């Protein structure tokens, strides 16, 4: 299992605490330092069953700079959103956990984190 984190994020630290308490095996990816590629984002979005706008942190300053609030949320704009997330990883909701069984979750709650544990 892999968890995408920002170490400064309290939700990320809480997710790591749950994984550690359950003695889960995982790899940490500091996605701000090691941003996902567009293809990796597509894969994770497919595993999550979500669209890029569903995992975008629209409150970030760069979101306002890009004008994301006015971007269409439709299939034709999907690649534009993915490109923005890849170029500005701070926009990616966190933490994202990809489990070995192919599932994934945005682990913002303890229940969500536990849902990907074996």
Automatic annotation (TrEMBL):
It holds the Pfam family ArsC. It comes from the Bacteria. GO terms for molecular function: arsenate reductase (glutaredoxin) activity. The keyword Oxidoreductase applies. Signal peptide: none annotated. Keywords: Oxidoreductase. Belongs to the ArsC family. This is Arsenate reductase.
